Amino acid sequence: MEEEHVVEKKSNMSQQQIAGAVIIAGILIAGAILLKGTKAVINTADNTPVNTTLAKIDGSDRTMGNRDARVAVVLYEDFQCPFCGAISGLESDTPLIQSLKQRDPSWVPFMPGVNNYAENGKVLFVYRDWAFLGPESIRAAEAARCAGDQGKFWEYHDYLYGHQNGENEGAFSDLNLKSFAKILNLDTSSFDKCLDESKYAQAVADSRAEGTTAGVAGTPKGYILKNGKIVSVIDGAESWSTVKPKIDSALK
After folding, report:
1. Which CATH number characterizes residue 87's domain?
2. Does 112 reside within a domain?
3. Is residue 18 a part of any domain in this protein?
4. The pTM is what?
5. Measured between alpha carbons, how far is 48 from 36 in angstroms, rounded to an integer?
6. Which residues, other chains included, contact 55 with Cβ-Cβ below 8 Å and sequence gap of 6+?
7. φ, ψ of residue 63 in degrees (nearest 5)
């Protein structure tokens, strides 16, 4: 009986290892796809995307930095997207981040660098929803906008990316989204009402539609603008070492 238990345990361990290998393989395949980016955007010789209609930046956008900056970085994301979580810089040692660094040992998340440029007034950073991974992505996007009604969009944004835990498995259930608001000291009565009434459901849907028109096919997907004109793109979970030169070029 003792020997049979050991054999059974080894068998179970083998199944777990196989399952783990499949998950890691899936991450690497998805990473390769998102790092490559969408083929819908065709670049000219000077790296300017053509046939791209990007919604104009306006007062409805969630922005960080100098509204009068000549250079803007518009980024479409999904709060459940693990690649968006990776580039946020809010987590440092997830399996996905490890795989990205295995592919490129110099890889570092680009959002801390973008945030620094925004804080220094060099660029305007624009966050846009492209919630495509399921109902919890949509509700998380709505919840972040509800937090924005109280001036805490970015705090809520960071909390979501710092607490990803699977896709549509309850991490971003309405109950949890409301608990996040409480943790962040929001007026929970107003927040809960906003979320329960789906105040921003149409805005989240519109943002995805606009992103799709612009050529977004996966997240994160970014556009670097100079004086309102697209001059470069960010395809997937790029490293800061590749994003920084694009922004610096636009700043010249």
Report:
1. 3.40.30.10
2. yes
3. no
4. 0.81
5. 17
6. 128, 210, 213, 214
7. -125, 160
